[in-house]
């Protein structure tokens, strides 16, 4: 899975029936070596109520369809968790602001 | 999913039976950090009536077969939405021309 | 899907039973921005009678198994179309030589 | 499959029901040409009791769901083995410290 | 599919039940433009009795599970053929040493 920050939203009227009502999030990967944003932005379906600015975990490919919401839908990236904290080599490199 | 612009079309007479009648679109990814076209062009199946010049959302892999049109077909990229607008960090970075 | 040129063939005697009799083609991707060959060559299964020199469309991953010939076979790239022509922004960038 | 070193852990309270209770590991790929850590870190589900510092084998995509623990779950990377040793061209390039 | 050379082996005692007994091979991709080894090494399951030094064909993703041996197993790369020869543009660029 990939850790990313929610950057924005995508809106479409003319789309496949099976994705009607889905909240489409713009996601920017976070490099866990530096905790900086890095790499190509992509679009994922929200399944956990994530908002802009939050750090989330995304799942790709057929695995992104293994949630109740996305089962059988034409989606290849789902947001499946909002991250509380990340520890690397005994050091807390990220903690969610409350 | 990946945001891309429709650039053109591909035509083939000698092809797999299961993709007969499909409209094959040439797609150029759009970098959402800059909204510039960037990266390698690829070919996807149209499922929403997209035309050259439009900004669309594509889905890849087995997920591209989760539409009524592409179910069970040998395709690994489908166009599943025409984009109306994209907002990043509270700023409208793309709006469809009407 | 990816557009590629057929460059050659691969022959193997000691191989999985399920791919016996398959014609294995060496494929070189074509960059549609320049129509030049570019990127890493790979190997795909022919399903349309493609020959060396022809420009073809390939499909990858589980989707490459969605043809009558490749159903249930351990292949991750199939050649599913011989390209007649490609148009980009109203200009014919490729036309098959007859 | 990819060889990686376990670097840390990810914790999330608000996540998909189907991944409740999973131990999420931060993984750094190891370049087998040099045995140095190299490439982008990612997150995988532990299925073998791996701890920080250990060298493990990871499996990606739909294949990461082919364990008893991850069957039908929205995960695209699983840790499926703790490595004892790696031999390349007759030379032992890695041996687990006991 | 990708052509690679077998470079070595990986051994693990603590691993998923479903991969017990599998021979895990270290594989180095071969660039078919130059026939030189190039790119990141990876690990695949042997299904054809391949040994160190041999040039093989590998299949990735869910397709690597479409052999009798790997069906339903958590593997994302299988060695499915030992290559006899490769011809590119009428020239034999590789022939197995017998």
Brief summary of the model shown:
The structure is a homopentamer of 98-residue chains. In chain A, 0% of the residues lie in helices and 47% in strands. Chain A is an all-beta fold and 98 residues long.
Question: Which short descriptors sum up this protein?
Answer:
homopentamer; 98 residues; mainly beta; OB fold (Dihydrolipoamide Acetyltransferase, E2P); 5-stranded mixed β-barrel; two-stranded antiparallel ribbon
Can you put this structure into words, describing what you see?
The structure is a homopentamer of 98-residue chains. By secondary structure, chain A is an all-beta fold. Chain A has one domain (2-12, 21-95): OB fold (Dihydrolipoamide Acetyltransferase, E2P). Helices cover 0% and strands 47% of the residues of chain A. Chain A is built from no helices and eight strands. The first copy, chain A, has strands at residues 2-11, 24-31, 36-37, 42-46, 55-60, 77-82, 85-88, 91-95. In chain A, a hairpin with a 2-residue loop joins strand 7 and strand 8. Chain A is elongated and about 45 Å long. The model of chain A has no long low-confidence stretch (mean pLDDT 97). Chains in contact: A-B, A-D, B-C, C-E, D-E.
